[in-house]
Design goal:
Number of domains: 2
Order of helices and strands: HEHHEEEHHEHEHEEEHEEEHEEEEHE
GO molecular function, one term: DNA-binding transcription factor activity
Keywords: Transcription, Transcription regulation
Pfam families: DeoRC, HTH_DeoR
CATH topology of the largest domain: Rossmann fold
Structural class: alpha/beta
InterPro entries: Carb_Metab_HTH_regulators, DeoR-like_C, DeoR_HTH, NagB/RpiA_transferase-like, WH-like_DNA-bd_sf, WH_DNA-bd_sf
Strand content: 15-25%
Protein name: DeoR/GlpR transcriptional regulator
Number of strands: 17
Number of helices: 10
Length: 261
């Protein structure tokens, strides 16, 4: 097997494991140019192994995904990018404010950073996030409220109880984690009930900030949470391709790029 053949085999394996792959990510992984990766993808698309999507490729049948990875699986992905995004988001939290943290691994990293200086009220539908913040709250600093609801594989609490508890709340800022973001389909998730709960979160917030690393671009979950231009802020990492940055900047009021390191 040639080096090129081994690289294409690895590309297909990664696409099958994750649902989609990004050109920029693969170029860095294999230490080759983006043009080389695009040629690899062209060959795999011609063979019917992959489908081409914006900025990369997906498994055949399109990028839409209905499967929902577990929390621990997602926590291991793009960890440094998520930590950088969390640091950037932390600057938006004001003392005494009421903020929402939707379930997700990037919002979990924000909660971990916030636990060191909890001086606000946090409403979340994530058991994992609440567990991180409760020790800080019991020390007399800030407050943590956990919605009820049905638990998903990603440890989100969803359904009528969750959406009902959010209906009478008023949040200064919502930090929203998403499964994917796409210029045509907006911000998405594979879980229908989680989408409904996240929309209730959005309705309760004066300002919405989406936290999403660069691998989320071009990924489409089964249902849309919000259109691309609905949130006021998107915070992502500096691995986001230039074309995607331009697309996001055209839709959202503020695009923040979190540098790694």
């Amino acid at each position: 097997m040639t080096r090129a053949d081994a690289r294409r085999t690895a590309i297909v394996a990664r696409a099958r494991a994750r649902g989609s792959v990004r050109v920029t990510e693969l170029a860095g992984m294999f230490d080759v140019s983006e043009m080389t990766v695009r040629r690899d993808i062209d060959l795999l698309v011609a063979d019917g192994v992959l489908d081409r999507v914006y900025g990369g490729a997906s498994i055949p049948g399109g990028p839409t995904r209905a499967d929902e990875p577990g929390f621990e699986t997602k926590l291991q992905r793009e960890e440094q990018e998520k930590i950088a995004i969390a640091r950037e988001a932390l600057a938006m939290v004001r003392p005494g404010s009421a903020i929402g943290l939707s379930a997700g691994t990037t919002t979990w990293h924000l909660a971990s950073a916030l636990a060191e200086r909890l001086d606000c009220t946090v409403i979340t539908n994530s058991v994992r996030i609440a567990s991180v913040l409760f020790p800080a709250a019991t020390g007399g600093h800030g407050h943590v409220l956990l919605t009820g609801g049905e638990r998903t594989p990603s440890d989100a609490l969803v359904g009528p109880i969750a959406t009902g508890s959010l209906g009478r709340l008023h949040l200064d800022v919502l930090f929203l984690g998403v499964h994917g973001m796409d210029p045509d389909f907006g911000f998405t998730t594979p879980n229908l009930l989680e989408a409904e709960t996240n929309r209730a979160f959005i309705r309760a917030a004066r300002r919405v900030a989406v936290l999403a690393d660069h691998t989320k671009w071009g990924t489409v979950g089964m249902t849309t949470i919000a259109d691309l231009g609905e949130p006021e802020v998107v915070i992502t990492d500096d691995g986001m391709p230039a074309e995607a940055r331009r697309e996001l900047a055209e839709h959202v009021r503020e695009l923040r790029i979190a540098p790694l390191g």
